[in-house]
Amino acid sequence: MLLCLDVGNTQIHGGVFEGNTLRCQFRKTTHPVGSSDEFGVFLRSVLRENGIDPSLVEKVAICSVVPVVAYPLRAAAIKYFGREPFILQAGVKTGLRVKYRNPLEVGADRIANAIAATQRHPGRDCIVVDCGTATTFDVVTSAGDYLGGAILPGVGLSAESLSSKTARLPSVEITRPEVALGRSSAESIQSGLYFGHVGAIRELSRELIREAFPNSKPVIVATGGFSRMLNDEKLFDEVVPELVLFGLKYAEQLNRETDKK
After folding, report:
1. How far apart are CA 261 and CA 258, in angstroms?
2. Please, are residues 229 and 193 in contact by the beta-carbon 8 Å criterion?
């Protein structure tokens, strides 16, 4: 079995693969950052709660956009699973040609998403929209060229900013409002968050297609915690909330097979 861990700014998203089957998923808040022992005890406990014997974990794979978490997680993998983890970072095999001006700036989660999209849709141009703490767009060609993309504040971050940086605007539940015309502060915020984000995704997708794929129709794949909430807006061709875990799995497999040669 393969234990995959995606460390985001808000949450750690984990999953266990048995072959190509994702047996279970779990989430943990990223902050405060725990010690290696705290991570190890949590991981073994959450696997048991999901009906998986921790001793059956043969491999561990990690991608992280929070550098301070990488070391204790690596130490936890070694101590509690007896495995040196694969870490998706600069220098490993990805199957992509990263065209960013500085490839080191691309987050490991964005690379994992791009890997998974190309694996799911071989020979197709793809745009991945990750609706998480930030909403990111990643553009990948059918030939495996990672061209870049766009980043904007996510729905949750926008809501948090409104409530923390204003004197009278309340914190609200993030949900799809029935109508755009809000008749209270809470309804107006919900409308702006939801429909504003829908508009941003639609416009950015249109511009990215115009610039990168003027003569083709790319597959638009959505992932991240807020992706399902937006599914009814016909913005995406498919929604795969666990896309990053599949990308991490493919990257670990690619590097393991390369090492054997």
Report:
1. 5
2. no
Report the C-alpha gap between 135 and 151 in whole angstroms. Answer: 6
Which pLDDT belongs to residue 51?
96
- The model's pTM: 0.92
Sheet holding 219-223, edge to edge: 97-98, 145-153, 134-140, 126-131, 219-223, 238-239
In terms of Cα–Cα distance, which of 7, 236, 197 is closest to 107?
7
Q: What is the DSSP letter of 94?
A: -
pLDDT score at 260: 65
Question: For the chain, which domains are there?
Answer: 2-87 (3.30.420.40), 97-247 (3.30.420.40)
Token pair belonging to 206: 């249109």
As a whole number of angstroms, the distance between CA 241 and CA 223 comes to 4
CA–CA gap between residue 80 and residue 34 (Å, rounded): 15
Bridge partners for 27 per DSSP: 13
Per residue in 68-114, pLDDT tens?
998 999 999 999 999 999 999 988 999 999 999 999 999 999 999 99
Active-site residues: which are they?
109
Chain position carrying tokens 């694969």: 86
Low-confidence residues of the chain, pLDDT below 70? 259-261
Single-letter amino acid code for the residue at 195: F
The answer to whether the bond into 32 is cis (omega within 30° of 0) is: yes
Locate 109 and state its tokens: 């989660």
Check if the beta carbon of residue 6 is closer than 8 Å to that of residue 12.
Answer: yes
